Structures are given as structure tokens and as C-alpha cells.
Amino acid sequence: MPIPLIMFNHPCLFRQAMLATLDHSQTRWRAALTTPSLPAVWAGLRSGLPDLPNIEVRLLRAPNLSRFAERLAEVLREETLRHLESRGGGVDFVRHPDRLRTT
């Protein structure tokens, strides 16, 4: 039975990497949902697909960021944490400026 996938529209680096890996391993798949919308991806995931394994999320930053880039990194980190915590998922924030792990 093919694996149902929820994907962003092409071009998307995650989509390309995922499909290349599945094709290389000769894993059968089918597009359950293709969308340009992140809220649609979340809705599709909540629609009854099997639970997915935990993932590690990282924010990698260059040293010596501008004030604007530093603030952007802070906002991304805060919003990611807020989103994960609101979904009831465990969050393990590692006190390293470039790492955020979910559990």
C-alpha cells in the first residue's frame, strides 16, 4: 500500500528531498494532499493520518548577525516554541543558540 503524503507544492526543498529518498528506496507513495499553504498541511495532518514520529528542529545561524537578523531568529524560535507547545507536544529547548529539539 502506498504511503500517503502531504506535501507543499513544487518547488519545495523538503518535498524534493523526501520524494528523492522515497524513490531511491523504491518506496511506493501517493499524494494525499498537495498545497502551497502551511495551515492546509497542518489540517491534512490532523485529518486522521497515522501519528508521525518526533523530529528534531534546528535553527542554524551565522555568527555576528545583524540586529535585524538576530531579532528574526528570536521571533522564529519563539513562534516555533509557541506552536509546538499549543499542540500539546513536548518541547526540549536546548540552551544552545542554534538548537531547538522536540520530544
Strand order, sheet with most strands: 3-5-4
- Rg, rounded, reads 16 Å
Q: Which percent range fits the helix content?
A: 25-40%
- In DSSP terms, counting alpha (H) and pi (I) runs of 4 or more, how many helices? 3
General form: globular
CATH superfamily of the largest domain: Periplasmic binding protein-like II
Q: CATH topology of the largest domain, which one?
A: D-Maltodextrin-Binding Protein, domain 2
Low-pLDDT windows of residues: 97-103
User: N-to-C SSE series?
Assistant: EHEHEHEE
Average of per-residue pLDDT values = 79
Structural class: alpha+beta
Could you describe the largest sheet, including whether it forms a barrel? 3 strands, antiparallel
- The CATH architecture term of the largest domain is 3-Layer(aba) Sandwich
Strand content: 15-25%
Total number of distinct structural domains: 2
What is the number of beta strands?
A: 5
- Given this structure, which CATH class of the largest domain is correct? Alpha Beta
Query: How far apart lie the N and C ends?
Result: 29 Å
